[in-house]
């Protein structure tokens, strides 16, 4: 799969890129070998991880994954984190599939685990992208930061250090086009750390289009007017080889607005969509996503 993705990238390198798919992180040596091969030989643009692995709570800050993170850090890797099901897959409500509510919480759990385990601090060269605007992290980060010094669970972090590491993530905007989410994320994220995302093709198309219309409207408001051009610039800084492309930001239409739903930032968005598609298909997770809709 990774070799096929590399061939696709090579067919049009100005438009395509890919995140490498890895074996389960519980297979440490296999995962490390694939990281080395994909980043050093295939020249993947990054790797994809799920929020947890195994039949127990092996979230990404688990000590068993320390060597894997060290390998990624040595290569200044871009690491795209996508949520998967929690260990308990029982639905809270028969009409509430896990991707709708549980996935954002899974992203938050693994992000907090990465911070509290000092995985983020110990691997500063890794650029970690969280899906879906970071789940609930922008809203909840202050809660553990303020509570930690007053609990028995000391991890040797001040509230300031905790928040600094929590804000170091990058955030994609897949299915996160509401004014409420975007306002909170803009207040929380470091400058240059917000990226476009769509969740295509796994989320329902109508939901993707609605979210992108919301994002389009927000970027044309006084609150979000700088976000549109910033998202492309942020992606190009993260993936500088794509900056050599002649493709540019779409211009405004007759109404004066840029239709994000149709434009998708061209090379950047196609790149994210293809890489996400390949990594998820390789793990055969697609049937689990929206099968209960």
TrEMBL record:
The chain crosses the membrane at residues 263-283. GO terms for biological process: secondary metabolic process. GO terms for molecular function: 6-methylsalicylate decarboxylase activity; hydrolase activity; metal ion binding. Belongs to the metallo-dependent hydrolases superfamily. ACMSD family. Residues 2-240 form the Amidohydrolase-related domain. Keywords: Decarboxylase, Lyase, Membrane, Metal-binding, Transmembrane, Transmembrane helix, Zinc. PANTHER family: 2-AMINO-3-CARBOXYLMUCONATE-6-SEMIALDEHYDE DECARBOXYLASE (PTHR21240), AMIDOHYDROLASE-RELATED DOMAIN-CONTAINING PROTEIN (PTHR21240:SF29). It comes from the Eukaryota. Its EC number is 4.1.1.52. It comes from Carpinus fangiana. It catalyses: 6-methylsalicylate + H(+) = 3-methylphenol + CO2. This is 6-methylsalicylate decarboxylase. One of its GO terms (cellular component) is cytosol.
